[in-house]
């Protein structure tokens, strides 16, 4: 689209917004007399297909969502997954589907309360153990393997592009993949790294109550995960 919208902004009527954009571009080629109207119409049976647009596959959308922490896409994909699991495409349906999936993978849900799929709700409650176990399954379950590769690469891609840049963090640049989590008062990092001897470790660190100090917390969390006894760390192999 030609018009740049603020991140997260959505048109009230998507069809009208597309029609307006198409009309503007069409008029640029044909003149001001070109008109476009949006509505519900059926294509004639003998009509010739001029063009077709299909969305990217779900695994590509998921990889993009993980790499860039796209919260809107996370919610959309979760509703699609909920419908596929036999739940309603609603908040309650997403909550049921997420919990059922985690339980199916034998992930410890002690102390866990999942309210949404993006993690934006302040009433969400997750643990480092749950996040580390979920990361482990991304690496060990063959069906989930492509999604684990979608996590940002330290110091290189997505939300980790500008992380691991301090002297005591640089050893992990290009070696660890992780999912960031940042709210006004919470900073977290969950991912995996391969040690020199070949062993793969998964890790998860969460800092709570860091309101007003999220930037220093980001620097601290990236340096802390290899040496903190409080960080949840598990060997995968």
Write up this protein.
By secondary structure, the protein is α+β, with helices and mostly antiparallel strands. It has one domain: Beta-lactamase (3-Layer(aba) Sandwich), CATH 3.40.710.10. 35% of the residues lie in helices and 11% in strands. It contains 7 helices and 4 strands; from the N terminus they run ααααααβββαβ. The protein has helices at 14-30, 58-68, 71-84, 91-104, 128-140, 145-148, 214-224, and strands at 176-182, 187-194, 200-207, 232-235. It has a 4-stranded antiparallel β-sheet with strand order 1-2-3-4, sandwiched between helices. β2 (187-194) and β3 (200-207) form a beta hairpin. The chain is globular and about 65 Å long. It starts with 13 loop residues before the first helix and ends with a strand.
């Amino acid at each position: 689209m030609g018009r740049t919208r603020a991140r997260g902004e959505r048109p009230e009527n998507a069809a009208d917004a597309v029609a307006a954009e198409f009309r503007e571009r069409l008029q640029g080629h044909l003149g001001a007399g070109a008109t476009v109207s949006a509505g519900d119409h059926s294509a004639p049976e003998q009509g010739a297909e001029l063009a077709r647009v299909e969305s990217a596959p779900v695994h590509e959308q998921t990889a993009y969502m993980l790499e860039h922490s796209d919260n809107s896409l996370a919610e959309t994909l979760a509703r699609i997954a909920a419908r596929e699991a036999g739940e309603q495409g609603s908040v309650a349906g997403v909550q049921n589907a997420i919990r059922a999936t985690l339980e199916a993978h034998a992930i410890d849900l002690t102390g866990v309360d999942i309210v949404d799929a993006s993690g934006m709700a302040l009433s969400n409650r997750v643990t480092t153990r749950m996040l580390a176990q979920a990361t482990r399954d991304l690496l060990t379950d063959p069906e989930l393997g492509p999604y684990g590769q979608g996590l940002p690469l330290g110091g290189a891609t997505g939300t980790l592009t500008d992380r691991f840049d301090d002297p005591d963090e640089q050893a992990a640049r290009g070696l660890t993949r992780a999912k960031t989590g940042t709210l006004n008062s919470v900073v977290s990092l969950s991912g995996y790294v391969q040690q020199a001897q070949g062993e793969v470790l998964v890790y998860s660190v969460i800092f709570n109550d860091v309101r007003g100090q999220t930037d220093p917390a980001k620097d601290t969390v990236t340096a802390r995960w290899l040496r903190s006894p409080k960080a949840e760390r598990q060997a995968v192999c």
